[in-house]
Amino acid sequence: MNDILQKLTPGEITVLVSVIGIGGVVVGAVIGAGSSLLVSHLTRRSEERRHYRQLGVEIGRAKFDQSLKLAQQLSDASGKVVPVPPLDAHLIHGIRLMEIISDSSLSAEQIGERIAALTYFTKTVTNTVQSKQ
């Protein structure tokens, strides 16, 4: 290696040093751009998840309000107290529903299966909470 450097002219050494410097700059730029893209992607995914969770909470609250109104109507019509699933069950159902819907890798059949399983899960939670009260 030392022999090769001794045979180079000062102009060739200057070009070699410049090429090495430019190579370092390019590698640094690629690393910087790559890390920036990764951070951007992770931030976007995090924002999407938060958005879907927020939608799930809104769905849960809307379903809870709907259940309360329906229970009140049935109670008024029958004169009996109509139990309402707890808010927690509605929130869990809404949030998990949005997780299922947001998974773009699922087929329609898989989404249907998961929603059916979620409905069973939510009913089990509701029945367990009601039995403990």
Describe this protein's structure.
This protein is mostly helical and 133 residues long. The chain has one domain (12-132). It contains four helices and no strands. The chain has helices at 2-7, 10-78, 87-102, 108-132. The longest helix has 69 residues, at 10-78. The model has no long low-confidence stretch (mean pLDDT 89).
List strands and helices in order, with pairings.
Elements: H1 2-7, H2 10-78, H3 87-102, H4 108-132
Helix pairs in contact: 2-3, 3-4
Kindly summarize this structure in a few lines.
With 133 residues, the chain is an all-alpha fold. It has helices at residues 2-7, 10-78, 87-102, 108-132. Helix 2 (10-78) crosses helix 3 (87-102) and helix 3 (87-102) runs antiparallel to helix 4 (108-132).
